[in-house]
Amino acid sequence: MTKKIIIFSLLSALIISLGVVSISCTTNANADNEPKPADGTLDNYYTKGEIDTLLSEYYSKMEFDTIVEMLDQIILKLDEGNDVLGIMKTGQTTSYATSDDGDLQTGTAWPIPRFTDNGDGTVTDNLTGLIWLKDAKSFGLRQWTVALSDCSGLTNGVGNLTDGSVAGDWRLPSIRELYSLIDYRHTGPALSDIAGTGHWSEGNPFTNVQIGSFWSSTTYSYNTDDAWFLDINIGMANYNDKFGITYYVWPVRGGN
Description:
alpha+beta; 2 domains; 6 helices; 14% strand; disordered N terminus
């Protein structure tokens, strides 16, 4: 995806959210319909001045100033080569072939520490902002529908949870949320320690992590009687019957 496409995808989302007319543009020409050089610089997509001109036709002064400020930050990050889309590194640092993941290590860098133990039965992932239950086995094995209701009904006082949460604060994580925990440097389980620099161990930061599979809230669209699950042991996803199979349950809340 080119930088120009990223910018205008973000612009379209902003336009829709403000309930105003969308900008129609091509992705290979500027406002004067002149081709842009593909030299890897900012001239490879619309300039900030061209974007400002387009936006000013549709927005109030306050809306315009807000969006231009956001674009300043986006273009700065793009020019610095940062990952605006937030695709995180896998954690793999050993290279097995030239240009493999361990060699290139592309993606958003992990913060150090990766996790924060909040001391109230929860652990915050400092990369995603998600807050996980520290005890990964609070509910044991459940069918999918029971897993959904158990998570949504989780409240302060259950087990070692003292975060003040009420029913509805917690949820069964999506498959992408579950995947965000995986550290592909490791197996058995494929999780890192609290710093994000080593392998998980009991209580560092999570407790009772099972070498098995955990339900996600994500339905398998080809057969809606199935849902996706993640094998925490090796970091691999698959799908299975919602109603006849039991997997572990790991509640989550919050997030960016």
